[in-house]
Specification:
- The chain is an alpha+beta fold.
- Helix content is 44%, strand content 11%.
- It folds into 2 domains: 15-56; 63-123, 2-Layer Sandwich (Trypsin Inhibitor V, Chain A).
- It has helices spanning 16-54, 63-66, 73-83, and strands at residues 88-93, 106-111, 122-123.
């Protein structure tokens, strides 16, 4: 019994090659996902401008948008989405600050605390 030895696992340090390969794979996967997202956004913008050029949609606040003032937010959203299904409606509380960036598939609708539209909705 005195002569038997117990085998112990020896701990090695991290493998540099293995760490580099894992980092490379993860980086390529994340980059690929980001690129697919970017292509999808470009496709949406291209579709928007194609429809705009054909005259199928408009960025001008037409009668239906001007008619949304003093209506409920639900009616305004339904009307806007029916007229242009490519946009998403964003409700903005009265007096709120918003960013100045232009997003072609967003319509901002300013509402008061009662949920009534107080200003003509705008694309952007």
């Amino acid at each position: 019994m005195a002569g038997s030895r117990v085998a112990h696992a020896t701990l090695k340090g991290p493998s540099v090659v293995k760490e580099l390969c894992i980092g490379l794979v993860l980086g390529l996967a994340a980059g690929g996902l980001w690129k697919m997202h970017h292509w999808n956004e470009q496709r949406k913008v291209r579709t928007f401008y194609d429809l705009l050029e054909k005259g199928e949609i408009s960025v001008v606040a037409e009668e239906f948008m001007a008619g949304a003032v003093r209506s409920s937010r639900v009616v305004a959203a339904a009307t806007i989405e029916r007229e242009n299904p490519l946009v998403s409606v964003e409700f903005v509380p009265e007096g709120s600050l918003v960013t100045t960036d232009f997003v072609c598939n967003r319509v901002r609708v300013w509402v008061n605390t009662d949920g009534i539209v107080i200003q003509t909705p705008r694309i952007g």
